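Summary: Need help interpreting a holo structure output

Steps to reproduce:
1. Submit the protein chain below together with the SMILES for flavin-adenine dinucleotide.
2. Request a joint structure prediction with the ligand placed.
3. Inspect the structure token block that comes back.

Expected: a single structure record containing both the chain and the bound molecule.
Actual: see attached output.

Input attached:
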Amino acid sequence: MHTVVIGGGFAGIKTALELSRQQCGRVTLISNRPSFFHHGAVSAAITGGDIAQMAISLDDIFATHSDVKVVHATLTSIDPDRKLAVCGHASYQYDTLVMALGSESDYSGIAGSHEHMFGARNIEQVRRFHDHLHATLVEDHHVERSYVIVGGGETGVELAGALRSYADELAKAHITRRAKVHITLVEAQSRLVPRHSHQASYHVAKRLKALGVDVLLNTRVERVDDEFVTIDKRKLPTETVLWAAGVRNNPFYLKHPQYFEVLSDGRVSVNPYLEAYRDIYVIGDNIDVKDAGRARSALDMAVYIADHLVRNVASRPLYPYRPSASLICIPIGAHWAYAECLGIYVTGKLGSYVHRRAVRRSYLQIMPRAMADMAVASQTTKTRNL
Ligand SMILES: Cc1cc2nc3c(=O)[nH]c(=O)nc-3n(C[C@H](O)[C@H](O)[C@H](O)COP(=O)(O)OP(=O)(O)OC[C@H]3O[C@@H](n4cnc5c(N)ncnc54)[C@H](O)[C@@H]3O)c2cc1C
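--- attached output ---
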């Protein structure tokens, strides 16, 4: 059996590793990026971590898996009748296709967003913002700086906290005493982290307030220009707007409506076995399943799908996918995180400890221990001189 897996993120890597561990035929992993980048590392990468160390080569991850072939290519179309995954001029014949293409930023038609906003979804965007931050805070000795983060979900609050701590460190080291760094977090809904419990929103808001981050709720960004951002008809001076709000599904599925049913939220509809079309499975952030959109659930789906394919080949009974209870961790600034599972939560240093353990566990799922430890260390050690 030959399984072609598309996407070198959590879901794709874990699927390939599990199929290899269970010796379920040949596997080809196709990804448009040569390395894996943990999104959870974004705030560390932006605020002084070593970005090069955070990108982990797919070739290194699969070095000891001779049954997995890693291909650096972009999936451009599929031909389910001939069972082909097409990447430009090259085609890959599959028995089963597993797709995990991840999601991308959705600027929701905000004027000026493409020219003036920064993003944090891939390594190029992270590097661009990291360099801009250093240039504005270190190389250009202005006494007043204003940074605006759009989106008060998990990513936005984490970035706001990390940015606050980092800006303070840089300001102390490089700028005059009178230096002021304002950080504003803008959220369209009436509370922060609106996907999570009210207690999470309460503790996150309290923490950001203690750090000195200004939070604007029930507020929408309308336009971004070179030197200001327009929020509810008011102009807020800033040269730096970081987008941490909407995401949309990978556009591949919408471009192939003959094979995928795309729901109103943009996600792909799958059957209880995560199959979207004959012998084509879709997993990770791409599908409409409870808890999709988290690394933990991408890993769970990968383990499920490998087991499902092994059962299928062996004509053993098949079971539908069941999401498990997931741990939520929201780190904000140094040594603080909110961690919650099944309604029980902890905050502060204990939350931070739980978060660090969870990050390490997710790395361990997709790489050997030594590599995982290095990846975790690169997130906590600031190698760039302040
Ligand atoms: C800033 C940020 C912070 C986050 N923090 C956390 C966190 O702390 N905890 C948590 O649980 N989750 C977090 N998440 C969410 C988590 O990262 C995702 O849920 C998880 O990465 C989903 O895994 P995936 O494999 O579905 O997609 P991804 O990890 O996004 O991987 C998709 C892969 O597909 C590749 N690809 C895309 N299109 C093609 C194509 N046409 N051809 C070939 N390859 C393609 C991409 O390059 C990528 O390698 C965060 C997300 C972001 C953006």
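--- end attachment ---

Reviewer comment: The pocket of flavin-adenine dinucleotide is lined by residues 6-12, 30-33, 39-40, 42, 74-75, 100-102, 120-121, 155, 250, 252, 284-285, 293-296, 298 (CB under 6 Å). The chain has a mean pLDDT of 89.
Status: needs-info
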